[in-house]
UniProtKB/TrEMBL annotation:
<dbReference type="GO" id="GO:0015937">
    <property type="term" value="P:coenzyme A biosynthetic process"/>
</dbReference>
<protein>
    <recommendedName>
        <fullName>Type III pantothenate kinase</fullName>
        <ecNumber>2.7.1.33</ecNumber>
    </recommendedName>
</protein>
<comment type="pathway">
    <text>Cofactor biosynthesis; coenzyme A biosynthesis; CoA from (R)-pantothenate: step 1/5.</text>
</comment>
<feature type="active site" description="Proton acceptor">
    <location>
        <position position="96"/>
    </location>
</feature>
<dbReference type="GO" id="GO:0005524">
    <property type="term" value="F:ATP binding"/>
</dbReference>
<feature type="binding site">
    <location>
        <position position="83"/>
    </location>
    <ligand>
        <name>substrate</name>
    </ligand>
</feature>
<keyword id="KW-0173">Coenzyme A biosynthesis</keyword>
<feature type="binding site">
    <location>
        <position position="172"/>
    </location>
    <ligand>
        <name>substrate</name>
    </ligand>
</feature>
<dbReference type="InterPro" id="IPR004619">
    <property type="entry name" value="Type_III_PanK"/>
</dbReference>
<dbReference type="GO" id="GO:0046872">
    <property type="term" value="F:metal ion binding"/>
</dbReference>
<comment type="similarity">
    <text>Belongs to the type III pantothenate kinase family.</text>
</comment>
<feature type="binding site">
    <location>
        <position position="117"/>
    </location>
    <ligand>
        <name>K(+)</name>
    </ligand>
</feature>
<dbReference type="GO" id="GO:0005737">
    <property type="term" value="C:cytoplasm"/>
</dbReference>
<dbReference type="GO" id="GO:0004594">
    <property type="term" value="F:pantothenate kinase activity"/>
</dbReference>
<feature type="binding site">
    <location>
        <position position="120"/>
    </location>
    <ligand>
        <name>ATP</name>
    </ligand>
</feature>
<keyword id="KW-0067">ATP-binding</keyword>
<keyword id="KW-0479">Metal-binding</keyword>
Amino acid sequence: MNLIIDAGNTFVKFAIFEGRNIVFQEKVETKDFCKAIKMMFGRFPKVSHAIVANVGGLEKKDIAVVAVFCKVHQLNYGSKVPYRNCYATPKTLGVDRMALATAAFYQFPNKNTLVVDAGTCITYDMVLGIGDYLGGAISPGLSMRYKALNEQTNRLPLLQMEDLLDFIGNSTESSIHSGVINGVCCEIDGVINQYRQRFTDLTVILTGGDAQFLSKRLKNTIFAHSKFLLEGLNYLLEYNKH
């Protein structure tokens, strides 16, 4: 069994894989990490390996707790990857993007694949059918755009994401929702169209926390896959065991 740990700044996502199947998933606040780890190994004592994708929320002492129970691989730029990395600055490539590229490489072999991860940021990652990872783009996600409008103006309120009734806003609040939601959808559709013009037979994967909300609003044909990052991390753990 493999333990997958995807650690953000506030929350940590756990997944336990048996082979390629997820048998357990949980999300906890970073402050509850050690307690959750001990409970998890009490419930799943057969976990032998773990991978940690840490963007800053976990400290060394937290990762050391995991190492008490099993072998741990901390994902970084020096980790082995199955694709050819053509990124100009591989040391700065986020571990989440490494995992997404890996999932694309294994799940869509010999296909040109664009992965759109709609979370705190929206990332675009392009993997060619020949196995080359090219890079992509990074832009602000939905929640970041709502916060920016509030924090960088004097009067605009901080809103929570909700359904957009019309792209023409007839109040300040509906105008903000239109600008954020319609803006993100137009961006994603526009970026996908750019990639389709350059790459034939393009497969597009949409994942991340806002994927479900956005999937029904996009014009392009996409595959929504909520567990794509976790599966990519599991592939990387297997790839780095030897």
